[in-house]
Every structure is written in C-alpha cells, then in structure tokens.
Amino acid sequence: MKINNRDLKIFVLGMVALFAIQTVYDWKQVKKDITTGFHDGYNSGSK
Fold first, then answer.
1. How does pLDDT run across 5-46, given as a tens digit for each residue?
2. Are the beta carbons of 31 and 24 closer than 8 angstroms?
3. End-to-end CA distance of the chain, in Å?
4. Distance (Å, rounded) from C-alpha 12 to C-alpha 8?
5. Which residues contact 30 (CB under 8 A, 6 or more apart)?
6. pLDDT at res. 47
7. Could you give the angle at the alpha carbon of 32 between the alpha carbons of 41 and 13, nearest 5°?
8. Spatial distance between the Cα atoms of 2 and 12, rounded to a whole number of angstroms
C-alpha cells in the first residue's frame, strides 16, 4: 500500500479541523491552559 501526497494532505487537514473544533468547543479550558503554560514557562525561565 502506497501513501500518496493526497493522503497526507487529507490527514493533516483532518488533524487541523479536529484541533479547531476542540479549541472552539472548549475555549474556556484552552484559554486557562494557555495562560497557565505561559506563566509557568515565564517563571521557570527567570530563575
């Protein structure tokens, strides 16, 4: 079985679509995780 360029494009497009849907669906948690990650990374880099 060969993997075509078209197959890879469809796979990547599907992953992007799932990421977008999950982000929109659970926006409050995504926003909380982003701010927590930013603050944790910023604080660990300044030590």
1. 999 999 999 999 999 999 999 999 999 999 999 999 888 865
2. no
3. 52
4. 6
5. 22, 23
6. 55
7. 90
8. 17
